[in-house]
Amino acid sequence: MLAERARLEGTVDVVDAEIIDVAVRTAAESLGLPPETSAAERRARGLVAVARHFLDHASDPAASRVGRPHVLVMVDLEVLDARTGGTATLAAGAVISGD
What we know:
Elements: H1 14-30, H2 39-57, E1 73-75, H3 77-82, E2 87-90, E3 95-97
Antiparallel strand pairs: 1-2, 2-3
């Protein structure tokens, strides 16, 4: 089974929820997404934009994951040669489309 999506869950108090909502909405608005983009997709992309911004601007060098994250993907040479189809495996074990 291909892992094309991941679901994130968390519970915060109402003040933190408002902060998160405003940050995610503001980030989504700045992306210039097409008008037909669903509200859920806008929120998801906004959340990723907030996370990227934080990682790009983190100043604590002692933090374990500072800066842009790196993804290790293991893919068979045949999949790379074909340039389409097949699957690839992320270092964490999730299987994604070779495309």
